[in-house]
Design brief:
Layout lengths: L12 E5 L7 H13 L3 E4 L14 H13 L3 E6 L15 H6 L3 E4 L3 H12 L3 E3 L12 H11 L6 E2 L9 E4 L2 E10 H5 L14 E7 L3 H13 L2 H4 L2 E8 L9 H9 L6 E3 L12 E3 L2 E5 L4 E4 L12
Parallel strand pairs: 1-2, 1-3, 3-4, 4-5, 8-9, 9-10, 10-11
Antiparallel strand pairs: 5-12, 6-14, 7-11, 8-13, 13-14
Helix pairs in contact: 7-9
Amino acid sequence: MALRPPILLKGDTIGIVTLGSPLAADIINARVAFLRSMGFNVILGKYVYAAEGIVATSAHNRASDLMDMFANPMVKAIIPSRGGTGVSDILPLLDYEFIQAHPKIITGYSDITILSNALYKMANLISFQSLLLIDFRPDTPPYNFNQFFAATATLTAPRIINNPPGIPLIGLIPGNVTGPIVGGNLTSFVGSLGTPYEIDTSGKILVIEETHEPINTVYRYLAQLRLACKFQDAIGFVIGECTGCNPAYSTTWNDVIRGELVPLGKPILANLRTAHGRYKAAIPVGAEANLDTFTNTLTILEPTVSPVSMHY
């Protein structure tokens, strides 16, 4: 069983870091103000406003900001400002033993996916494909906040992950499997292949979503995962959206998913709203889940946070 971070309660302190690409200071300030209006204290990493090109600042600076949040006993959750590019740079610079000894909620999607899967693999810590700082704003759908707080601020278990009303989950291959859930953004975890931090899909349910990639590129990524035996090792698949992905050669996201995954004969649940789309289901990376495509349900079987805060 993976390690659960302590529960998030109103009045707790949330740490904000920039781990990938930079985000404009006015956006950071507006989102921080919204978090504070929700009843949370907020502290900012030393380099949260940094902007030095494609990435906010050096990998060392970004990694040190993250480790400082894990080391700060006041911080109960860590929310990256955004994803973007470059999160993989910090992975060799993190102290996974320290993180395992001081577990905290960390949430995000896009390039944060590679961090989430690395934290599960290297520190056995559950983290969340859920909201980034940019999502804490008045026009965010209530569904997204409900999902985030159900995963991080309650001990609810089992927890069925439903799409918003009127948007069905779609079973492509019938079956029922149980195992830890991993994955997230396709581009991000494909980039980890061949490194010590590559995604481990053995006996796992694999979540896949993507954004703003042409479908011929998506096909290449899926083929690379197939050649790396990541599909062979997985026990089932949950497919999200490919937001803003243009068809190529009259081929769509659904076409390549069906072409690559359906022939494997493993349970596939498609059409999940998570990560880059307007609606963002909260996926606890590393948590035990049940995927049932007879009933088209995805159920998180265990609480994804612990009831007692850590003191050190």
